[in-house]
């Protein structure tokens, strides 16, 4: 399995990968809190040709599930733009948060909005790279906080070839036990394409998305290593930068392929 990190150095991500010993890197192509189309990456050719695997994370602002047209329609557009940008850097996927509907809205509407998006995209020209839907930590109206909600979403979108990104901090903070989580996720989705391997600063079922390094959070490190070993999927740590090299080394030692 490949183990690596989310890199903050957008100008030279391969150099950043070398500093922490990453075999796979995740990066943003534009402001993660913005709505702008990503510009061409200055090192796209190098990234595409590199032996380091690349995955791109869509902006946090994207919420394909939203019932608000002013959010949902721009969200579809920005995801499409990032799919194209991800293909240019040779990424194996685009991570997109599952999103949510607002209080008082029927979550089934959010599920239907996801289906409409992926069905239309698949019908028009397909996906430049696979969309990897990520579970999230909080919100009673989230599409993929808990796995019963994930199952409802997958029943609607699974046939269109979307992938799944499992975030351990999000799962733990969202109220999902990590013991057996790989088997439960695969029973729903049939696949795990990427692991976001993060410890949590907050307790179980807190609904708080605050990442910690493997050795400094509320999840026992051996539980995190067990998830990695069982999943056998590429791993990205999204942990505080000063501990990323240590996190990667720990996983290589305690969760060998």
UniProtKB/TrEMBL annotation:
Keyword DNA damage belongs to the record: yes
Any one GO molecular function term: DNA binding
Xylose isomerase-like TIM barrel domain residues: 15-252
Necessary cofactors: Zn(2+)
Biological-process GO terms, alphabetical: base-excision repair
Annotated Gene3D superfamilies: Divalent-metal-dependent TIM barrel enzymes
Keyword entries, A-Z: DNA damage, DNA repair, Hydrolase, Metal-binding, Zinc
Keyword DNA repair: yes
Domain of life: Bacteria
Matches recorded under InterPro entries: AP_endonuc_2, AP_endonuc_F2_Zn_BS, Xyl_isomerase-like_sf, Xyl_isomerase-like_TIM-brl
Pfam families listed in its UniProt record: AP_endonuc_2
Protein family according to the UniProt entry: Belongs to the AP endonuclease 2 family.
NCBIfam families assigned to the protein according to its UniProt record, in alphabetical order: PRK01060.1-3 (NF002198)
Name of the protein in question: Deoxyribonuclease-4
Species this protein is from: Pseudonocardia ammonioxydans
Upper lineage: Bacteria, Bacillati, Actinomycetota, Actinomycetes, Pseudonocardiales
């Amino acid at each position: 399995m490949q183990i690596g990190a989310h890199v903050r150095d957008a100008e030279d991500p391969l150099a950043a990968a070398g500093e922490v010993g990453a075999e796979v890197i995740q990066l943003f192509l534009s402001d993660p809190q913005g709505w702008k189309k990503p510009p061409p990456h200055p090192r796209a050719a190098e990234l595409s040709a590199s032996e380091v695997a690349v995955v791109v994370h869509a902006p946090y602002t994207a919420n394909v599930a939203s019932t608000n047209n002013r959010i949902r329609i721009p969200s579809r557009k920005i995801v499409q733009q990032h799919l194209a940008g991800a293909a240019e850097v040779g990424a194996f996927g685009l991570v997109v948060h599952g999103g949510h509907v607002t209080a008082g809205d029927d979550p089934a509407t959010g599920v239907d909005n996801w289906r409409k998006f992926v069905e239309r995209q698949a019908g028009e020209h397909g996906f430049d790279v696979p969309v990897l839907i990520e579970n999230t930590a909080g919100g009673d109206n989230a599409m993929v906080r808990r796995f019963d909600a994930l199952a409802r979403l997958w029943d609607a979108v699974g046939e269109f070839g979307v992938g799944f990104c499992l975030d351990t901090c999000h799962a733990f903070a969202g109220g999902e036990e990590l013991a057996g989580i790989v088997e439960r996720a695969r029973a729903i989705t049939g696949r795990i394409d990427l692991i976001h391997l993060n410890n949590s600063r907050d307790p179980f079922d807190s609904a708080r998305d605050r990442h910690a390094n493997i050795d400094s959070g509320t999840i026992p490190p051996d539980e995190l290593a067990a998830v990695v070993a069982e999943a056998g999927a590429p791993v990205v740590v999204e942990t505080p930068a000063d501990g990323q090299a240590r996190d990667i080394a720990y996983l290589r030692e305690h969760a060998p392929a």
